[in-house]
From TrEMBL:
The organism of origin for this protein: Arabidopsis arenosa
Topology in the lipid bilayer: Lipid-anchor
Name of the protein described by the UniProt record: Serine/threonine-protein kinase BSK
GO molecular function: ATP binding; protein serine kinase activity; protein serine/threonine kinase activity
Top EC category: transferase
Domain Protein kinase: 60-332
Known catalytic reactions: L-threonyl-[protein] + ATP = O-phospho-L-threonyl-[protein] + ADP + H(+); L-seryl-[protein] + ATP = O-phospho-L-seryl-[protein] + ADP + H(+)
E.C. no: 2.7.11.1
Regions of compositional bias (Low complexity) in chain numbering: 321-332
Cellular component, GO annotation: endomembrane system; plasma membrane
Length: 332
């Protein structure tokens, strides 16, 4: 392999000083990371470096939550004292017997740069071992926040939907329309608490999704999976992707909503999200709905005032009473 790939021991290594912007300047090329990886060139790592970084792949360094990837594990690691933490994905059932195929596919993903996409820093091939190395996102996954902590406000849910749609639209426009196992577990939060899409799912395993599907709808399809995430955000419930349609079909928006929101959401905005989810869950492989229009719709919801619709009548009444009272107290 050529290009900017290289392999060297990481002892006392310093971050590169010159940026390696392979996609040109744009507002989407910003990388929010202060840990030394902003200008890091795509790297072929030694297995010994990653073994040391993850403390010999110790079980208490495991950070993966996705049950669908139980055969593959993601570890937290640190390359050296000079650098920040990284996430290391180790494939147990190696889907790439060929070293060059794996390296080339990883390098293509490593060239992607977007503020809503976790940066892929490099990879490792060592005999039967296949590993990927990415930035470490310090603020948990959407799955943990939504299904376990259960304290995500409505405005944050809208922001997550918008950010992930941004990332998927960018990937699609860059030629990466497919993504393995998109779910709430592959949505991560960076140091600024913004949602980012894991880059690991873009380096695709060899999976026959057709065997998972019935009829014309493919539950492994990116758009379908995004619809499932929208259902997660509405309901706060963790469900298999195949159960997402029955979760929302024929349901009133008020009955559908996560009770942990305690009514503090906009019914109008929730209906928009529900309609988007319904459209996405009807998507086939021949049609993708993660478009600029969908992103624009979600972006439009960010600009609205975040006043819970359930509280609006109360606020209006209070304002009227206050206004009436002040008028009565005015001097003649």
């Amino acid at each position: 392999m050529g290009g900017c790939c290289y392999s060297k021991p990481l002892e006392n290594v310093q971050p590169p000083q010159q940026p390696q912007n392979q996609l040109g300047e744009s507002k989407n090329d910003e990388v929010k990371n202060d840990d030394g990886f902003v200008n890091w060139p795509f790297t072929e790592f030694f297995l010994s470096d990653l073994t040391t970084a993850t403390k010999n792949f110790r079980s208490d360094e495991i950070i993966s939550e996705n049950a669908e990837e139980s055969s593959n594990v993601v570890y937290k690691g640190r390359l050296s004292e000079n650098l920040g933490f990284v996430a290391v994905k180790r494939f147990k059932n190696t889907p790439w017997p060929d070293h060059e195929d794996f390296g080339e596919e990883a390098q293509e993903v490593g060239e992607l740069k977007h503020k809503r996409l976790v940066k892929l820093l490099g990879y490792c091939c060592d005999e039967e071992e296949r590993l990927l190395v990415a930035e470490f996102m310090p603020n948990d996954t959407l799955a943990k926040r939504l299904f376990h902590q259960k304290n995500m406000e409505w405005s944050m849910r809208l922001r997550v939907a918008y950010h992930i749609a941004e990332a998927l639209e960018y990937c699609s426009s860059a030629g990466f329309a497919k993504y393995d196992n998109l779910s709430a577990s592959t949505v991560l939060f960076d140091k600024d608490d913004d949602a980012c899409l894991s880059c690991f799912g873009l380096v695709r395993e060899i999976i026959d999704y057709d065997r998972r599907t019935t009829g014309s709808v493919n539950t492994g399809n990116v758009t379908y999976r995004f619809g499932t995430i929208l259902v997660n955000l509405l309901t706060g419930v963790e469900i298999p992707p195949s159960h997402a349609p029955e979760m929302i079909n024929g349901k009133d928006i008020t009955d559908l909503m996560d009770p942990n929101l305690m009514g503090k959401f906009s019914k109008e905005e929730a209906t928009v999200i529900l309609n988007l989810a319904s459209d996405c869950l009807q998507c086939t492989d021949r049609k993708s709905l993660i478009t600029e229009d969908l992103v624009a719709t979600l972006e439009g919801l960010q600009a609205k005032k975040e006043i819970p619709s359930s509280e609006m009548p109360k606020i209006t009444k209070q304002q009227e009473e206050a206004s009436s009272s002040s008028q009565q107290q005015l001097p003649p």
